[in-house]
Write a structure and sequence with these properties.
mainly beta; 8% helix; five-stranded antiparallel beta sheet; 221 residues; globular; binds 2-acetamido-2-deoxy-beta-D-glucopyranose; eight-stranded antiparallel beta sheet
């Protein structure tokens, strides 16, 4: 009886810990009310990570560190997005801090671009920002997920650091280089061109595997 009781307590504590993990989602829109079709790039960031280096694996030479957190004050939930110097790998002294209310549509120029270039046909980006138990992705997007998990072939949401999403059909340009992000049959592709004529389609679909030194990665549509 005592053992069963202890087991129940351990199980319910464990359940609480599992449930306490939340994600701050930035679902992209082109209008300030977030009512048109979702389009652009977005993120879903785990709040159980205190400090994330180089969110979105952007092209910057000196990537920043980032944190995403939340608190409930009276009956409102506030979400915080902070940037830190790239040397501040423990996220101690914020450079910039942005606060938003749950379920609000806000300009999101502060999000790091996950590509080196500008989006064709998009002037401003807004995001519908939410706090949820599971990551929320915009539909019809390429999803690039990074996991903090050193074991080969282990990619579960409990270990998710962040996911970057890019809308199907989105095109970026950078001088004579252009890149289009394409979904086909749940597979993710890049269509890279130099000078508009020299083009190459690459399948970048990735099932759970070790992409780099420490993080597992998944790419899909
Ligand atoms: C981004 O693109 C520009 C222009 O092509 C290039 O000069 C720069 O080195 C690139 N930066 C990174 C970090 O790749
Ligand atoms: C929070 O409470 C205030 C005052 O009671 C109310 O005006 C507001 O609508 C509430 N907000 C939410 C999200 O329930
Ligand atoms: C980041 O830290 C480096 C080294 O400490 C420093 O040289 C640089 O000026 C800092 N950058 C910012 C934006 O604070
Ligand atoms: C935040 O908003 C989302 C979307 O409406 C909702 O599902 C979630 O329960 C809200 N979270 C909190 C803590 O209020
Ligand atoms: C793209 O890559 C994925 C994963 O390696 C593979 O399953 C799929 O068949 C590939 N698609 C094509 C058209 O080759």
């Amino acid at each position: 009886m005592k053992i069963l009781f202890t087991l129940l307590i351990i199980l319910s504590t464990f359940n609480c810990l599992v449930k306490s993990q939340k994600f701050i989602n930035f679902v992209p829109y082109q209008d300030y009310e977030c009512t048109t079709n979702s389009y652009g790039f977005g993120y879903s960031i785990s709040t159980s990570q205190e400090c994330i280096y180089n969110l979105g694996n952007g092209p910057s030479n000196k990537p920043l560190s980032y944190s995403a957190s939340w608190e409930t004050f009276q009956n409102e939930t506030y979400l915080y997005f902070k940037t830190y110097n790239y040397t501040d790998t423990a996220c101690q002294s914020p450079l910039e801090q942005y606060s938003m209310q749950n379920n609000s549509c806000s300009p999101s120029v502060f999000l790091p671009t996950p590509f080196n270039g500008t989006i064709v046909g998009s002037e401003y980006q807004y995001s519908l920002i939410s706090l949820t138990d599971e990551p929320v992705y915009s539909p019809n997007s390429l999803v690039f997920s990074q996991y903090q998990q050193p074991d080969f072939n282990v990619c579960s949401n409990g270990d998710l650091l962040f996911s970057t999403t890019v809308s199907n059909g989105l095109k970026t340009v950078n001088g004579e280089y252009s890149t289009s992000y394409i979904c086909n049959n749940n597979n993710a592709y890049l269509y890279n061109c130099i000078d508009r004529v020299n083009c190459k389609l690459s399948n970048i679909t990735l099932s759970c595997n070790q992409a780099g030194n420490i993080n597992n990665q998944v790419n899909y549509c």
